[in-house]
Design a protein that fits this description.
Elements: H1 12-20, H2 27-32, E1 35-42, E2 46-49, H3 57-61, E3 72-81, H4 90-95, E4 108-119, E5 127-136, H5 141-158, H6 160-170, E6 182-186, E7 189-194, E8 199-201, E9 207-212, H7 224-228, H8 235-243, E10 248-251, H9 255-267, E11 277-279, H10 289-293, E12 302-306, H11 310-314, E13 320-323, E14 333-334, E15 347-350, H12 360-371, H13 376-404, H14 426-436, H15 448-455, H16 459-486, H17 489-493, H18 498-518, H19 526-539, H20 543-551
Parallel strand pairs: 7-9, 10-12, 10-13, 11-12, 14-15
Antiparallel strand pairs: 1-2, 1-5, 3-4, 4-5, 6-7, 8-9, 13-15
């Protein structure tokens, strides 16, 4: 079914081509985007969305939440929660398949907005205000904003026929896959997607835009020096607040600054994945507004970006609030009691005390770079390298200790269930820091142990531990499959009863199915060899058992 309003229909020949290729129409489109929304703002009526049956919160998230007299084009992004326990996706139900399986997972949609506000005497009250929104499950901020820069100006001139053509082009794109270089043509431009830093190339034949193909929110590409310029002297505090998953509100003068700052903050702990919720642009109309602003319980572990001055009063009980101004001057840390309702000045309103000392040499170097107008790319490289090394220094001792919990390879035998991974002991880990702690790779001084203790209570530790534990369990499964494959299974069956042999076949089948479902990275030939063994054993059994096992 068409991801647009009924007035924009897929070309008949496009649908025929898709059917000839053995795929559903719009299948490739939906691997990149949920839908494209066109939202018009009318000063008399308020927001109105042209794509049918989508939640009204998209309308509010597609426009600046507070008055802005600026004219022209603006880009920003938002993130919204997908409903839990419904059939598939909240929006996919409306647009694609009503019979999708029920999912209990909480996931999010990312919205990428291109907003235009220009004077127009033909419009009531003299302003044309409209947003083009790309809604996707993929957190590829840089890519989708680049895509909007290509298609949005053309859309505002030619309207629906332009979007129809773009959608048909996207429906021809290959599905996104990590590690591959993809050429994605759209409107005469080729977006070349690969896992490297963004480069812009302009050959004679076509314009090719090369940029990051990013698989996680924590790896997004932003102009960090611009986002952090007014907060450079507090860089250590910001990194710790994000690392610990602390409740944090960014009050910014525009949705662009709000969304870029939030996304830059959560990327500051890369390669560690940020596991709390975050909203680059949050409004009073958001479906989680009451949940996040209630005063009956502690603030949730979430990073919110807002622009409406109303939030100054609403978030007065939150422990960490950053108020950004229009000018990039260095802001100060202030007491929360000084957070006023109307004339709140820019600053970091918090009582938080950092566990680690500032890197004064780095701050001085970055501030000097601003004074000397050092290129943004150089400033960004300095900042990213510092944050990366800081996070790695923190996470390497955890990774080293986690690896020590893995059973020895020689303890994995073909005739027994794989041994268990030893439980994580915080006290045992702390005891390792004296001889293999972060001081081996970081020059920063301070209370590293205190930082680790608080990190253990954060969503980021929980997410990291679950991910690493799952990887280790899968590694044990791979090792077990490999030692089973190398064992003399046929010899083992010679003196065994039919019941024992059937039990072995069923267990091996279960392991193979589980390995295929989890896409375990076993050595080449292991799966085929075990599958051949199962078939060989079944063929040696009596006919009645062969029939039972063949239909099992």
């Amino acid at each position: 079914m068409n991801p647009f309003d009924g007035s924009v229909s897929p070309r008949h020949e496009e649908a025929e081509d898709a059917a000839a290729e053995g795929r559903c129409p719009w299948a490739r489109f939906s691997s990149w985007l949920e839908c494209v929304c066109v939202v018009t703002f009318d000063l008399e009526l308020g927001q109105a969305i042209e794509v049918r049956r989508l939640k009204t919160s998209i309308c509010y998230l597609s426009f600046p939440d507070s008055y802005s007299g600026s004219l022209g084009d603006t880009q920003f992004s938002f993130r919204m929660r997908q409903s839990v326990g419904r059939r598939g996706s909240r929006f996919r139900d409306d647009i694609y398949n009503r019979d999708a399986p029920v999912t209990l997972e909480v996931s999010h949609f990312c919205g990428y907005v291109y907003f235009r506000q220009v004077k127009d005497v033909s419009v009531k009250r003299g302003y044309f205000q409209k947003s083009l929104v790309l809604l996707s499950r993929l957190p590829y901020t840089h890519m989708f904003h680049m895509l909007l820069q290509i298609i949005a100006p053309e859309y505002f001139e030619k309207l629906e026929p332009c979007l129809e053509a773009v959608c048909n082009e996207i429906d021809q794109w290959p599905s996104p896959e990590p590690g591959l270089t993809l050429n994605l043509p759209v409107m005469g431009v080729v977006l070349q997607v690969r896992g490297t830093r963004p480069v812009q190339v302009s050959p004679d034949t076509a314009v090719v835009l090369v940029f990051d193909f990013l698989m996680h929110e924590s790896n997004m590409t932003f102009d960090l020096p611009r986002c952090f310029q007014s907060m450079l002297i507090h860089l250590q505090m910001l990194w710790e607040l994000v690392l610990l998953g602390e409740p944090l509100v960014i009050m910014a003068p525009s949705p662009t600054i709000s969304s870029e700052t939030v996304l830059a903050l959560i990327s500051s702990i890369c390669p560690l994945k940020f596991c709390s919720d975050f909203r680059p642009y949050f409004t009073i109309h958001d479906s989680e507004f009451r949940e996040y602003t209630t005063r009956t319980q502690a603030p949730p572990n979430v990073v919110l970006g807002v622009t409406n001055p109303f939030f100054i009063k609403t978030f007065q009980t939150w422990p960490h609030i950053i108020r950004l101004g229009d000018l990039p001057k260095q802001i100060k840390v202030k007491k929360l009691a000084k957070l006023k309702t109307l004339d709140t000045k820019p600053g970091i309103y918090t009582a938080y005390k950092t566990f680690l000392h500032k890197d004064k040499i780095l701050i001085k170097r970055l501030l000097k770079g601003i004074q000397r107008k050092r290129p943004s790319e150089v400033q960004s490289a300095i900042l990213r390298r510092h944050l990366l090394e800081l996070t790695q220094s923190f996470i390497i001792p955890l990774e080293r200790y986690m690896a020590s919990l893995m059973p020895l390879q020689r303890s994995v035998t073909p005739w027994k269930t794989p041994p268990q991974i030893r439980p994580f002991s915080q006290d045992e880990f702390m005891a390792t820091l004296d001889h293999s702690g972060p001081q081996l790779t970081s020059v920063l001084k301070g209370d590293w142990m205190g930082l680790y203790r608080k990190f253990f209570r954060s969503p980021n530790f929980d997410g990291w531990y679950r991910h690493r534990h799952r990887e280790m369990v899968q590694k044990l499964e791979c090792l077990h499959l490999e030692v089973i494959c190398d064992a003399d299974l046929l010899g083992w069956t010679k003196d065994k009863s039919e019941v024992e042999i059937v039990d072995l076949v069923l267990k091996l089948r279960e392991k193979l199915i589980k390995a295929q479902r989890q896409q375990l990275q076993v050595k080449d030939g292991v799966m085929d060899k075990l599958d051949a063994f199962i078939k060989s054993i079944i063929s040696s059994l009596p006919d009645d058992l062969q029939t039972v096992l063949s239909t099992h």
